[in-house]
Amino acid sequence: MTETPGLLSRRVLDMSESATLRMAQAARDLRATGRDVISLSVGQPDFDTPQHIKDAAIDALRAGHTGYTPVPGLPELREAICTKFRRDNGLDFQVNNIVVSNGAKQSLYNLCLALLDPGDEVILPAPYWVSYTEIVKQAGGVPVVVRTEIENDFKITPRQLEDSINDRTKALLFSNPCNPTGSVYLEEELERLARVIAATDRVCVISDEIYEYINFTGRHASIGRYEAIRERTATVNGFSKGFAMTGWRLGYVGAPEWLSRACSKIQGNVTSGACNFNQRAGIAALLGDLTPSRDMSDVYLRRRDLAIERLSRIPGLKVNRPQGAFYIFPDASSYIGKSDGEGVIGSIDALCDYILQSAAVAVVSGSPFGDDRCFRISFATADGLLAEAIDRIADALSRLN
Q1: Does residue 57 sit in helix, strand or coil?
Q2: d(CA 275, CA 106)
Q3: Using one digit for the tens of pLDDT, what is the confidence trace for 365-380?
Q4: What is the C-alpha separation between 294 and 299, in angstroms, rounded?
Q5: CA nearest 108: which of 69, 138, 68?
Q6: 238: which DSSP letter?
Q7: What number does CATH give the domain 10-48+292-398?
């Protein structure tokens, strides 16, 4: 394919490619050569969508629910989302506070486009999800990266947050549970962060809670429930992770009405409403039997423990115990500067490439997540494959001197 010079926008030329998708493609390319590659790179549940949710979509199709939907979503689904927010999060939203989108990523884009003017700063505790920086920049904002430490389970402290706020700060954006670390903010930790935000008069919070149902602490907490910041907090969620509905592309945000109306206005000029029959399946997901979601979370917990037990045996790796999502983010900085006999491992990116080529295991470098000491492992894969993959990684790392 020939590129015509000078026609592509500076916006797309400056945009970074998704690191997780890039590594997934590298794994596919290596597999095409005949190598037995195990991929621990993509954050996709290895479960099928629960049957009652699929049945709801099929029933909706048969009933002819195939037309356009209101831009912010079907009223029935928005009511179901309000019920879910009250039931699970202690958030008392009304229908007008809800906007349903084509995935939680679109909700995040809508929010940043609605909030940010050129030069506005957004605080991103690192490690952060790879798309956050690009979403902020595409909306004209400036990412302000605040580095966290594995010893604190990769969580931003109130002092770090306070020190990062200035007269250009517009928002704090973070995920809870976190991709890529699996860290979970507990209620008392969120309350302390909320106090810092409440002391300002213009800083908003965007809380990405897409991994809410994969939480090993026993209870999920939402920062939006604190009264002092309720009118400046947007809670983003969706169906991809907790209901194994990645390909359905269905997400939503609950926000104060001044912000939800702005998100609907933006979405109306981009995609309009999300798929009709998918939304009806979403109702079944939120109001139906949650046992499949809980069962999936139990499996992830077992796999987490399996992975940690094996990773902890590898000399030089620092491994904490993530409390949610399906990721582990080990610190492998001790291997930077070592050699495989042919060349020196000069960065975490190079280490991940070495693991792919030497062990035929795909992991994702921490660099695009904002931490160049670590790499991300997804344990959303079968127990046997997970164990074999980590054993291969251990063998490959043992050959570095």
Answers
A1: helix
A2: 14
A3: 999 999 999 999 999 9
A4: 9
A5: 138
A6: E
A7: 3.90.1150.10
In sequence order, which residues have a C-beta less than 8 Å from that of residue 288 and are 6 or more positions away? 52, 53, 56
Alpha carbon distance 384, 391 (integer Å): 11
Amino acid symbol at 332: A
DSSP-derived pairing of the beta strands 364-365 and 121-126: unpaired
Q: Which helix (H) or strand (E) holds 146?
A: strand 142-147
CATH class of 65-287: alpha beta
In 50-186, which residue ranges form alpha helices assigned H by DSSP?
51-62, 75-89, 104-115, 131-138, 158-164
Question: In angstroms, rounded to a whole number, what is the distance separating the alpha carbons of residues 297 and 295?
Answer: 5
List, for residues 71-100, the tens digit of each pLDDT value. Answer: 999 999 999 999 999 999 999 999 999 999
For residue 354, what are the contacts with CB-CB under 8 A and spacing of at least 6? 340, 345, 396, 400
Closest to 39 measured CA to CA, from 30, 52, 49, 50: 30
pTM above threshold 0.85: yes
3-state secondary structure of 350: helix
Structural domain spans, the chain:
10-48+292-398, 65-287
Cβ 46 vs Cβ 381: under 8 Å = yes
8 A C-beta contact, residue 209 and residue 223: no
Q: How far apart are CA 385 and CA 388, in angstroms?
A: 5
Angle in degrees, CA 77, 128, 322, rounded to 5: 85
Q: What CA–CA distance (Å, rounded) separates 252 from 287?
A: 15
